[in-house]
Design goal:
two-stranded antiparallel ribbon, 13% strand, Putative Rhs domain protein
């Protein structure tokens, strides 16, 4: 997107992010109807997908607006700390203002060595590994029960995803 303008880049990002989510919701309604899912279960499925899309709308809009700016500055975006970076050693220096009598406040470096650790990521990864996939319509024999199981699986996956990196 280096040869396009800022607003063209934002428009393309919105189309691939937010636009794809909205299109997926409308296509899901038609796919559910074609599969023989009852209107009430179809509405529940659409509501869960719409709630997820609305919940991610602010992030999608800000991401679409910021990515071209960050790209122009040569920065690469990273959504979160990947699980492969967990337990990596880190070395750094904090600078604190300290009072050493009788002089005034002096900035003093404090070197440290640490380890990257976010236990929520490990818990989320462990819990998500035990979530079974939802049964298909062929396994249950009923389109409604298969769709309800899929909606339950989606909600559970969203809840576990809020715990940490999965």
């Amino acid at each position: 997107m280096a040869d396009t303008g800022y607003f063209d880049s934002v428009s393309a990002n919105l189309k691939t992010g937010v636009g794809a989510q909205v299109k997926g919701i409308s296509e899901g309604v038609k796919a559910n109807s074609d599969a023989g899912v009852s209107p009430s279960v179809n509405a529940l499925d659409t509501g869960v997908k719409a709630a997820a899309a609305i919940g991610g709308l602010a992030d999608g809009l800000s991401e679409a607006a910021m990515l071209p700016v960050l790209g122009a500055m040569g920065m690469k975006g990273m959504a979160c700390l990947p699980i492969s970076k967990q337990l990596d050693p880190v070395i750094g220096v904090d600078i604190h203002l300290v009072t050493i009598p009788p002089s005034p406040v002096v900035p003093m470096p404090h070197p440290y060595v640490g380890v990257l650790l976010r236990p929520q990521d490990f818990i989320a990864a462990a819990v998500s590994s035990f979530i079974p996939p939802p049964p298909t319509a062929e396994q249950t024999g009923d389109a409604d029960s298969a769709k309800l199981a899929e909606v339950g699986h989606t909600v559970l996956t969203m809840a576990v995803g809020m715990l940490g990196a999965t």
